[in-house]
Amino acid sequence: MFGAFRSPRTVVFGHGQIGSLAGHVAAFGKKPLLVTDQRLANDPAFAAAKAALVAAGLDVGVFADVEAELPAHCLEAGIAAAREFDADVIVGIGGGSCIDAAKIIALIAAHGGAISDYYGELKVPGPIVPVIAVPTTAGTGSEVTPVAVIADPGKAVKVGLSSPHLLPQVAICDPDLTASCPPGLTAYSGADALVHAIEAFTTARRAEDPKITLEHVFVGKNAFTDAFAREAIVNIGRSLARAVADGSDGAARADVMLGATQAGLAFGTAGTSICHAVQYPVGALTHTAHGLGVALMLPYALEFNRNHALADIAEIGRMMGFAADDQCDEAAVDACIAGIAALLKEIGIPSTLAEIGVAEKDLGWIAEQALGANRLIKNNPRPVDRAGMDQLVAAAFAGDRAMLNDKVCVEGVR
Question: Staple partner for 275: which of 40, 294, 351, 392, CB 3.0–4.6 Å?
Answer without folding.
Answer: 294
